[in-house]
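anyone seen this seq b4? input:
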Amino acid sequence: MEFARKVSDLAALVKFRLSATVVLSSVLAYLVALEAGGVSWWAVGVLTAGGFLTTAAANILNEILEKDYDRQMERTRRRPLAEGRMSSSEALLMAGFASLGGISFLALFNPWTAILGMISLMSYAFVYTPLKRVGPVAVVVGAVPGALPALIGCAAAEGAITGLGVTLFTIQFFWQLPHFYAIGFLGSADYRKAGFRLVPEIDGKVDVRTLGRDAIIATLVLIPLSLLPYALGVTSAWATVLVALLGVVFFYYALNFYRRPERSTALRMMFFSFAYLPLVFTVYWAGKLYVS
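predicted toks r here
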C-alpha cells in the first residue's frame, strides 16, 4: 500500500498524463520530419526518455513554486507537495536529476534539441508559472514552451530548425489556445481562489465574449496552417485535406462555444482539442508514407 502511494505521488508530481501527452507530440513530430528509409525505434526511445524527463522536471518545478496556491484549489489540493506528503527539497532533487537526465538524452541527437529542451523547461517553470498570477497573457506565453516539443521532435530528425519544424511548432502553439480557453473557462472559479488570472474577466466574471472570439481566431488560423506541410512536400494531398477538415470541426466547436458559452460547449471544445493534435500529426505521418 505504501509503495503504491509513493508511485501515485510520483505520478502526480510529474503530472504523468500531461508529460506523456507532451512526449507524444514530440515523437509524432519526429516521425513526420524523419527522412524515408525506416524508423530507428532506439532513437524514438531516447527522444521519449529525454522529452519525458525534461517535461517532468518542468512540472516538478512548477509544483514547488505553486504548492501554497495548490492548497487553495479543489483540483490540486491533494497533490503531494500541497498536502505535505513530500518535501520541497525532495522534489527539487528529483527535478535536478530529471532535468540533467532529460537534457542529456536530448543532447544525444544534436545541440538544437538540448538547447530547445532547456528553453522549454526554463520558460515554463520561471516565466509562465509566475505570469499566471499577472494576467491572461500567461496563456500565450505558456503556449511557447508548450509548443516546443514539436520543434524538438523535428530538430531531432532533421538536425536543424527547419520550415517544417517551425510549421509544426506554430500548429501546436495555436492549438493550445482554444484547448486552454476551454479548460480556463471550466476551472475559472477554482483558479480565482488561488489568485490565478488566466482568463479575461469583467467585474469578476469570465469575459466569455473575448474568450470565445479568441478561440475562433485560433482555430481559424489552424486551417491555412494545415496546408503548409503539403506545400513543403512533406505529406500527401489526402492527408492535408483530412487535417484541414479536422480544423473546420475544431472551428465549429469554437463557434458553438462563442455562441453559447456554457459548460457543455466548453467541454465539447476541450474534448475535441485532446484528440486534434495527435490526430493531425498522425495523419501527416501517414500521408508522408504515401506522398502522392
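The two ends are 55 Å apart (CA to CA). The chain has twelve helices and two strands. kinda curious what u guys think
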